[in-house]
Specification:
heterotrimer, A mainly alpha (about 325), B alpha/beta (about 700), C mainly alpha (about 500), B: about 700 residues, alpha/beta, Rossmann fold, eight-stranded mixed β-sheet, 24 strands, about 20% strand, globular, disordered N terminus, C: about 500 residues, mainly alpha, MetI-like fold, three-stranded antiparallel β-sheet, about 5% strand, disordered C terminus
Chain lengths: ~325, ~700, ~500
């Protein structure tokens, strides 16, 4: 088992390198540094000098991969690839267009993101699984039909609608909670409430349906018949046998997103003015701040890969076949 | 015909237990699909305490649905429509669901066909048994574990304390079925329903499990409802037998009575369709046609379309249940009408045509010209382990097999699952690359030649697979399936010629010409196997490797396919490598037999030599484990334990771990070949002495 | 990349002329890149349909789809959307009246057949916001009364309800009257259309059976009988009722739209109904062209990895793990940003702004395709791994059938149901994704009308008092109907094609 885990962790390294190379070529090879500069400085009437200056300021004036003019190790290190891409492995994300340190910014913005994303995730999980279990319990009845129809309807509604509609109804008509904003500490609850609610609502349809499919798949298996033949009640069969086995496919889809919770949600955060990583990303996209976007892409992949490793670890907990072999 | 069967001494009867009162009474049970089709149609039977009642029938006849109806565990979309089930005077169908739960597992327990799938994979077996104990024995806390271990010991699991903490995947198939039995016994049921409990197991394991069931019944006095398709199992286990066909019980009798004089034409044919050595000269009495699909409803005798004794009455009236003497009952017009009794007195011979052993004689002469020569064939699969997945060892699936198949002969390769017999077949065809050895086909070495050279040899050697449902591409028409080989090997050049050849092939395997425009899903299992045979015949092979070609088929259909294979051999002079675990089929079809254990041939010789005078203890055990209806081989060896893993075979003779005669030298070195006759050779120190 | 973009210009067929709806002036047809993709897609679907028609086992699951009322009704709705989308796909540039040096000069604006059809509502632009079915503007303005006083009030609309003398009194009655008349007209036309098509169908069957004379009862009875027999079929009844309802809705809308803005107008006074209808094409393009882009990748790589195993499998697995480990929104955002820079740096490629916006749309589809093939690829790899162990594959190998032939004859046909299910399931999520991406600012060109841009433009209006709600309502409403129909249809397709759900039928 240990060997299995070590192997899975080692496998993450080449993937991370792959992601790094991919983002590097996307950001530095597709468009030339000159184009980027011109873009940043406004399209019209840009002097070559201004471009040069911009490139120097932002470290785009170096060669891409190999610096023939530098000495020794600097031949490699004094390049765009090393400075901008390779150093991300050491969590050095450089600075944004307005000169702030991206790494520090990420640090401070992680908590608000997590304050929204974590409760959304946990409450959502609870509600979706409960809903799905209920539908499974009443499978092939009118109740189940109703549940599934509701799910299809809910998943056909745009996520934007939940945000705009929820924000409008809750804050404007009922004056429950502030429309947007964020505060630290205990105050955060009233700011967090609405985004969490909307976040949960946003995927109740698709998620519940997914869990229901998993449960139905399990409930058709032979061991469930054995459990019933023992004289167990339907509820016990569902909780003790089906749920336990369904954990394996459920974890595959769920554990992977846990680290990504740090990244927050792009839409929710920008709508509600939460100073998290999601709104940071949106702002960077709108301001065409490529340094920040690049950092977020790399961070996101890193967290995703961490999620993959976590998934493998979680298998060893729920699946004895993985644990004992 | 009757005398023919009654001549055979019946197996020593299952122990007579103090059989008492009727414990289960089923009366007029009807189970329907939601669309109204009757799956179980008006079934009545009773079981006494301590008695074994066998429901015998082919796939799709409704026997499993009968069992699930008793448990009220029918799948969604199927329900009990009418009837009466009484367990110990309690009306099962009237019970509310919560009370029914007390009956399930408590009064009436059930074990299933696939022990591998029937246990919860993420719960320890101890916990799974404990669930039943808590529910029905009201045991709490500390009492549970010892009782669990006790139950596991009772079903013959050694080291039960440790096993209780293990998960199903850590147990072998036989042990899983034992755990299932332990779980069923946990509630001390009055009736145990066993639905094909040994079908998924090897013969030696099957013998162990059947013995366990018998012993347990003797100890506890419970009634046993045994559902099976295997006449041999019935002969060994049952007191009473009900024969099911298309949702109905068509004949019911005490076992001795049924085996001595089967009354229904279907039952008679079923006996006649069984292959064995006594019939090896002649074609089997196959039942034409197929088992009707589930829920097919007819206002006539359901067997009439396949029955050679049927007359007008059979086709338009459902026969009533007729009680004969000696507790035998039958649902057949032969016993109700005058025409019927006339027909009975005519005593129509069972096997069609007395085609004497002409083919056999021709085959017996044999030919020395060897078609396939295999020397020291080895197939090893690497085992990867550790962080870097390094190769730490090899599974020696095939470890030095040599064989020789002359033209026009059948060589049978016999062994239990996992012994490597299928791997041998695939390695001969180069579907799996052999690790070492030599395969010479018609004088050409096949190992190590280029893909192009290999293609030239491909037409000569072809394979028929086990599962007729997986061996035909569902997206291709029959004509396209047959044409594939011809295309790939450039046989028959223009399309006219090809179409003619396809027509010819279909006729040869007994299918209509029109079937070439149809898709595989429109055919039954037996018909699909015919298509698969036509597919390989299309390229005019000399050698067919048949990998358990009939093990997925019903007995009546199996006989059709065996007859076809036999007649093709006579017509075309084909050689067969017949891979099988079914010794009766081998005895019927083969000339020579090779017995395989853990990747090696342990004994080989002619059919007579190996199956009638086996020298290797494993062969002896294998033979004695097969439940037979003619009573042979009942007293000999029972094998303990299960086949070890081929990745780590035992030191010395591979078989010594399970051998009753193991000696000191058996532990040290693999025994060499001992020549008994010119054809009979064996690897055993016993024979060497 | 450069090359690809340059080719977009030759797509303008310079010499061909055709007239749109008898406008009288010859126009220049324009085939934009996405138009070409859609035509390609249509051709593929048509070819597939012809191929399937001749193969009963392939038709079988479609028969199962046709047996479900929900699936058929959603298909009807979807085809209406597709119809609008297709009309909006046939582009042209109108010829201008003036000529230079005897050569026809074409307008820089690329129009579509749909634009021509909806010319009425397209051209009737108000000054700014107006509510649905309103006769007055939504904002007060200073107006001079005939007696010279300056009055601040809601002015009358330029087009909406101008035929009314006193809207405050007459509006409600007029709207009701038009609604009822429109519904009736729609109903009558609908019934007529159904009757005519039923007669044609009857005639067709009669023609066929009359010639073959195998089904006597059809050739004998009249068309009413054909109809009543068809009505016994549940999906057909559901379809008929839906069709009549839609016909009534059409009648109402057309009647009202002639004199009102049915869904109001937006900030610059454009009719919202027109905008919403124009958005349909964008949604459809994103939902279908993306699939077209992704499919070859997923299919080829998936079955190659599964069948060939070994290093090929390792490389492909590595590739899709890397791609799928980048959160898709971020990858799309990064790629779209880079694409924007690239396009803006090469303005010389585009003759019209429509061509530019269109290329951006195509690139968005490409990017979405590249980021979304991994899921399907993984599925196909897994399925191929299972298939390659099946005995019919081994039988083919034993015949020495070549690898490419095994892949095309045995593997591909047996994974197609997975591909189809994935494609129809993906469609709706792509339509939804477009809205989110456009909202985030990494979606379609701001000048392209889409649900996303519509929502984005309307979002800020939510803050107004009283609120401007109709743009959002229209966008979300249209999107809901489209996505819901797509989801329901996808479910019907999945139920019909998933072998696990149809096991009983397969065995029997």
């Amino acid at each position: 088992m240990i060997a299995y885990l070590i192997r899975r962790i080692l496998y993450a390294i080449p993937i991370l390198i792959g992601v790094n190379l991919l983002t590097f070529s996307l950001f530095f090879v597709v468009n030339t540094a000159d184009d980027m500069a011109r873009m940043q400085l406004g399209m019209k009437r840009v002097t070559p000098e201004a471009i040069e200056k911009w490139k120097q300021q932002h470290g785009y004036d170096k060669p891409l991969l190999f610096n023939a003019h530098a000495e020794g190790a600097r031949k490699i290190s004094d390049t765009i690839f090393f400075q901008k891409s390779a150093r991300m492995f050491a969590f050095d994300f450089g600075s944004s267009n307005d000169g702030r340190n991206v790494a520090r910014e990420i640090q401070t913005r992680m908590m608000p993101s997590l304050a929204i994303a974590l409760p959304t995730f946990l409450i959502g999980l609870l509600i979706y699984i409960t809903f799905a279990l209920l539908m499974t319990l009443f499978r092939a009845t009118a109740l189940d039909m109703l549940g599934v129809s509701l799910c299809v309807l809910l998943m056909s509604i745009s996520g934007l609608f939940y945000i705009i509609g929820g924000q409008f109804v809750a804050s404007k008509l009922w004056h429950w909670v502030p429309i947007s904003g964020y505060a630290g500490g205990i105050d955060s609850i009233k700011f967090v409430l609405l985004p969490v609610l909307i976040g949960v609502m946003g995927s109740v349809g698709a998620s519940s349906r997914w869990y229901r499919t998993i449960f139905l798949e399990e409930i058709g298996k032979d061991y469930v018949r054995t459990a019933r033949a023992k004289g167990l009640s339907e509820l016990r069969v569902l909780f003790r046998h089906v749920l336990k086995n369904a954990m394996i496919p459920i974890l595959t889809g769920v554990v992977v997103v846990i680290p990504l919770l740090f990244m927050g949600s792009l839409l929710t955060e920008s709508f509600f003015g939460i100073p998290g990583l999601g709104s940071y990303t949106i702002d960077a996209i709108n301001a065409q701040d490529f340094g920040v976007v690049r950092a977020m892409v790399f961070l996101g992949s890193m967290l995703y890969i961490a999620g993959l490793v976590l998934t493998d670890i979680s298998y060893t907990i729920v699946d004895p076949r993985v644990r004992l072999q | 015909m009757k005398s023919d069967l009654s001549l055979n001494p019946l197996p020593s009867a299952p122990p007579e237990i103090g059989r008492g009162e009727f414990i289960l009474n089923v009366d007029g049970l009807v189970t329907r699909l939601n669309n109204g089709a009757r799956i179980v149609d008006d079934i009545s039977f009773s079981i006494k305490q301590g008695e074994t009642f066998a429901l015998l029938g082919e796939s799709g006849c409704g026997k499993s649905m009968t069992a699930l109806s008793l448990m009220r565990l029918l799948p969604d979309g199927i329900r009990i429509a009418s009837g009466d089930i009484k367990l110990d005077e309690e009306d099962i169908l009237a019970l509310p669901e919560y009370a029914m739960r007390k009956v399930r597992g408590g009064q009436m327990a059930m074990i299933f066909q696939e022990p591998g799938l029937s246990l919860n994979p993420v719960m320890t077996v101890g916990d799974q048994i404990a669930e039943a104990l808590k529910l029905h024995q009201k045991l709490r806390g500390d009492e549970i574990r010892p009782r669990c271990v006790e139950l596991l010991e009772q079903v013959g699991i050694s080291d039960a304390f440790r096993r209780a903490n293990e998960y199903p995947f850590q147990l072998s198939g036989g042990m899983k079925q034992r755990v299932m039995i332990a779980m069923a016994l946990a509630g001390q049921p009055k009736l145990l329903i066993a639905d094909e409990p040994t079908t998924a197991l090897d013969v030696t394991i099957q013998a162990q499990v059947l013995k366990l069931l018998r012993d347990t019944q003797q100890k506890t006095g419970m009634a046993l409802l045994l559902i099976t398709h295997d006449l041999g199992v019935v002969a060994q286990m049952a007191h009473q037998v009900g024969v099911m066909y298309a949702g109905q019980i068509i004949e019911q009798a005490p076992r001795e009575q049924l085996f001595a004089r089967p009354a229904h034409p279907y039952t008679q044919k079923l006996f006649a369709a069984l292959p064995d050595a006594g019939r090896s000269g002649q074609p089997l009495a196959a039942i034409p046609g197929n088992v009707p699909p589930l829920g097919a409803s007819l206002a006539a005798c359901r067997f009439a379309p396949r029955c050679d004794k049927a007359w007008a009455l059979c086709h338009d009236q459902v026969p009533e249940w007729t009680q004969l003497e000696n507790g035998q009952g039958v649902r057949c017009h032969l016993y109700t009408s005058q025409i019927g009794s006339d027909k009975l007195n005519l005593n129509v011979p069972l096997s069609p045509g007395s085609s004497t052993a002409s083919g056999e004689v021709a085959g017996e002469e044999g030919s020395d010209s060897s078609l396939l020569q295999v020397e020291n064939l080895q197939v090893h699969f690497p085992i990867h382990k550790g962080i870097l997945k390094r190769t730490v060892g090899h599974v020696k699936a095939v470890d030095g097999v040599s064989m020789n198949i002359p033209a026009g002969r059948t060589l049978a390769l016999v062994g239990e699952s996992g012994c490597g017999k299928t791997t041998v077949g695939k390695a001969l065809l180069q579907l799996i690359t052999p690790t070492a050895g030599s395969v010479r086909f018609a004088g050409h070495e096949l190992i190590g030649i280029s893909a192009r050279q290999l293609r030239k040899q491909r037409a000569g050697m072809q394979m028929i697979f086990q599962d007729p449902y997986a061996s035909l591409n569902p997206k291709m028409r029959v004509a396209e399936i047959l044409q594939e080989g011809m295309d790939a090997l450039s046989i028959a050049n223009n399309s006219d010629e090809r179409q003619r050849r396809i027509d010819e092939l279909l006729e040869q395997v007994g299918l209509e010409k029109a079937s070439k425009w149809r898709y595989p899903h429109e055919f039954s299992g037996g018909q699909r196997q015919r298509i698969a045979i036509a597919r390989v015949l299309a390229v005019n092979p000399n050698l067919l490797i048949c990998d358990e070609p009939t093990s997925a088929l019903d007995v009546s259909v199996q006989a059709q396919i065996l007859n076809l294979l036999k007649s093709l051999q006579q017509q075309l002079g084909l050689s067969y490598l017949f891979i099988s675990h079914n010794l009766a089929v081998v005895e019927y079809l083969a000339h020579e037999v090779y017995v395989m254990y853990l990747g090696r041939i342990v004994e080989r010789g002619t059919v007579k030599e190996v199956l009638h005078a086996p020298k290797h203890p494993y062969t002896q055990a294998l033979l004695s484990a097969v439940p037979r209806i003619d009573g042979q081989g009942m007293k000999t060896v029972r094998l303990a334990g299960e086949t070890p893993s081929p990745s780590n075979p035992p030191q010395g003779c591979h078989f010594h771990t399970r051998c009753a005669h193991a000696m000191a030298e058996c532990h040290k070195e693999y025994p060499g070949e001992t020549i008994i006759t010119a054809t009979h050779r064996v690897h055993c120190y016993l024979a060497a002495e | 990349m450069k090359q690809a973009a340059h080719v977009s210009i030759p797509f303008y067929a310079q010499n061909e002329r055709f007239s749109v709806l008898n406008v009288g002036v010859s126009n220049m047809p324009v085939i934009l890149w996405t138009d070409a993709m859609i035509f390609l897609l249509l051709a593929t679907i048509l070819a597939a349909a012809l191929w399937i028609r001749k193969r009963p086992h392939l038709v079988l699951p479609w028969h199962r789809v046709a047996k479900g009322s929900v699936g058929m009704v959603s298909l009807l709705l979807l085809s209406l959307f597709v119809l609008v989308g297709l009309l909006d796909t046939m582009h042209y540039r109108a010829a201008l009246p003036e000529k230079s040096n005897g050569q026809t000069v074409y307008s820089a604006e690329v129009l579509s057949v749909f634009d021509a059809l909806a010319k009425g509502i397209k051209s009737r632009s108000e000054k700014t916001y107006s509510a649905p079915l309103a006769a007055y503007l939504y904002a007060k303005e200073s107006m001079e009364t005939p007696d010279g006083k300056i009055l601040r009030d809601y002015p009358r609309l330029r087009y909406g309800g101008v035929h009314l003398a006193d809207p405050q009194r007459e509006l409600l009655g007029d709207v009701l009257k038009r609604t009822v008349i429109g519904a009736l007209e729609g109903l009558i036309i609908g019934v007529l259309l159904i009757a005519v098509s039923n007669m044609l169908f009857h005639f067709f069957i009669k023609l066929r059976t009359g010639r073959l004379s195998t089904v006597p009862e059809i050739s004998k009875d009249n068309w009413i009988f054909t109809f009543t027999r068809a009505m016994k079929n549940r999906p057909f009844r559901a379809l008929l009722i839906t069709a009549l309802l839609i016909a009534m809705l059409f009648g109402m809308t057309i009647n009202l739209a002639a004199v009102y803005h049915v869904l109001g107008t937006d900030k610059v006074g454009q009719d919202v109904l027109y905008l919403a209808l124009k958005s349909i094409r964008t949604g459809l393009v994103i939902g279908t062209v993306t699939t077209l882009v992704m499919l070859p990748f997923a299919l080829l790589l998936g079955i190659a990895a599964g069948y060939l195993r070994g290093w090929v499998d390792d490389v492909i697995q590595y590739l899709y793990t890397v791609l799928s480990s980048i959160p898709s929104v971020l990858l799309i955002a990064a790629a779209v940003l880079m694409m924007q820079v690239y396009i803006e740096m090469h303005p010389e490629w585009f003759e019209t702004s429509a061509a530019r916006a269109d290329l951006r749309l195509l690139f968005l589809c490409l990017i979405l395709g590249v980021t979304s093939w991994t899921g399907l690829c993984r599925l196909l790899r897994g399925e191929t791994l299972k298939l390659r162990e099946l005995e019919y594959i081994q039988a083919a190998q034993a015949f020495g059938v070549s690898t490419s032939r095994i892949l095309t004859r045995h593997i591909v046909p047996n994974v197609m149901h997975i591909v189809l299910i994935a494609v129809v399931m993906d469609f709706s999520s792509l339509v939804l994704a477009e809205a989110v991406l456009s909202y985030v600012g990494v979606g379609v060109d701001p000048s392209t009308m889409s649900f996303g841009t519509l929502i984005n433009s309307a979002r800020l209006e939510m803050g107004r008092e009283p609120m401007v709600w109709w743009t959002l309502a229209a966008a979300f409403g249209f999107m809901l109907v489209l996505v819901l129909a797509a989801n329901l249809f996808a479910d019907a397709v999945r139920d019909a094609f998933d072998p696990r759900l149809n096991r009983t039928e397969a065995v029997a």
